[in-house]
Amino acid sequence: MEKDPSCCQEGAKMVPGAGLGTEGTETQVRLQGTSWGKQVRGGCPQDLTSQGHLQLDDFVGAHPDYNEEEEEQKYFRRKRLGIIKNVVAASLAGTLTYGVYLGLLQMQLILHYDETYREVKYSNIQLEDIDHKVLMGINVTPVAALLYTPILIRYGPTTLLAGTVHQHGHPCFPDAHPGRFFGTKWAMFLAVGIYALFVSSNYWERYYTLVPSAVAIGVVIVPLWASMGNYITRMAQKYYEYVNYKEEQEKERVPRDACNAYIIVFQTVFYSCFHLSFVCAQMPMVFFLNNYLYQLNHTLSAVKHCGTLSHGTLPGFNKTVLQSLPRSVNLIIVESALMAAAFLAMLVVLVLCGAAYRPMEEIDMRSIGWGNIFQLPFKHMRDYRLQHLLPLFIYSGFEVLFVCTGFSLNYGVCALGLEKLAYLLMAYGFSASACSSLALSMLHLRRHIPVLAGAIIHAGLLVMLFCWAPEPRHTEQAPLLYSIAALWGTGSALNKTGISILLGMLYKNKERQDFIFTIYHWWQAVAIFVVYLWSGLPMKVSPRYAPSHFRTFQAFWIPKLAVSQAKLSILLLTLVVALGTYLWMERKLAWHVEYRLPRLPRPRHKSCGYRYLEEDNSDETGSEGGSDREDSGESPAEAAPGVELPKEDGEQLG
């Protein structure tokens, strides 16, 4: 039989023992027990190619025990555990950051209040004036935060640096590209770092260290809490995606409001941890400062009136509160412990918190341009849902600062002494942390019920505070004061947790959430600024402002020209307005009244780059064909006739 020369030439091209397989990998195609000589001498090996493919499949193919579905379940289980880790880490970082900030500020204000401390240690630097400017920097600066917070969250200094490096080139970073950095996590890390900077500035208390760091704190207050709220809500949405990954793979239409349960749980976990910051803030006072304080008979010796009878912040309080001055070494130890906690919060955010968005989503969100990002918070406030929630945002800022200043000083310290201030605020913090779990009732009840319950608790307490003024230096009133603090914490927990959950339910589009939470926390900052301005006002309207026939009801009467002169009157009026507008919003949603949402500009991608090489890219915003009308950036008022209105407000008022 004549041999086929072409076949033999193919066989000769095979290098014995080391040939390149079909996948470009180096493969052994020699069969054991078979000599190449015999195959070539006996003719062309007809089954050589098929046998080589069999051995190649054994080498690069799937393992016989490999279960694709089981591995997929393990992968998404790890993803879900990562989401839980992110939420716990962000909650811990927020607790440490705010606890350190409040604790240090409280300790320093008490020390600087003492005349002896100021004269002995800082006689020539006018410490009272510095403290006034520090408080002004913290409370006034956030008023401008609406102008820059969304840009800071979406861009951040790191992204701007990357854009500069990409444009001009850098020998150390030749492959740097703009937009490869996350914005939400970076904003959180930057803000926590500035809080740590504020702590470090107290090692050397001078005007040029304290005031600039206080202004920096004011700059990042709104970005920190807006990015935190956005981060927790986004984690809830991602957790839902990882739980229902099969529906996502099969492109099934998911039920509307399906992720609401995870938003409720995650926001509850966050606020349960966050309210413990009020407890952590009292640790410097409990373990350190209380050892140096005078008893109440000395500090309250000149105090004549408390509660609603007082004017300003505890008039008559003794200017000397320290019976002995703390040593500088002890102060440095306490500040170092606080600095270590702030640095730990930075590490927690940097190491344990993952990115809120995928890199492709971050790029899409930034690429709409600076101008649009700047305008969108203002445009979103045209939505009647936000307009009706604005009084609730304002009251949320009023009430937390009132309990930390007005109630704790004019009621608590006035009756129990400065040494009990820490325990009063700890009662508030423990109660708020524990009662944040009551927001889980939203899983079974309509969403307005917890918010309504918190408002009713606060309204009852405000009416009680209107009518009651504790006696100075009477410690027998302690149980009642601690009960009021605990009940106020319950109302605060329901208020703050309920608002964050409500915003997550109403605005599920991930491209809108940073704008929404910025608006919420900006109005809170404005309310805190107003509380800072009214610190010298009386607790309620003086009888001389009321007509004679209204003297009996002077605690509830608010004259037209003296509204700003009554703290409790402003609080109660704001609460009533906030509750009414919120219930009216729920009623309008139940009636399916159209709300107005601004269009989100489509991402503007360059024709060349490291990602966007095609005109129709599957990563573009809106390319997934989401079922939610809001996710497509189209408002209900602008939808085409005949299109069903969005029903994302499924929980309605009965």
Automatic annotation (TrEMBL):
User: Keywords for this entry?
Assistant: Membrane, Transmembrane, Transmembrane helix
Look up keyword Membrane and say if it applies.
yes
Q: Does the keyword Transmembrane helix apply?
A: yes
- One Pfam family named in its UniProt record: UNC-93
Q: List the gene name.
A: Unc93b1
GO molecular function term, any single one: Toll-like receptor binding
How does the protein's chain sit in the membrane according to the entry? Multi-pass membrane protein
Which InterPro entries does the record cross-reference, listed alphabetically? Ion_channel_UNC-93, UNC93B1
Q: Which domain of life does the protein's organism represent?
A: Eukaryota
Q: Give the UniProt record's GO annotations in the biological process aspect.
A: intracellular protein transport; toll-like receptor 3 signaling pathway; toll-like receptor 7 signaling pathway; toll-like receptor 9 signaling pathway; toll-like receptor signaling pathway
Q: What is this protein called?
A: UN93B protein
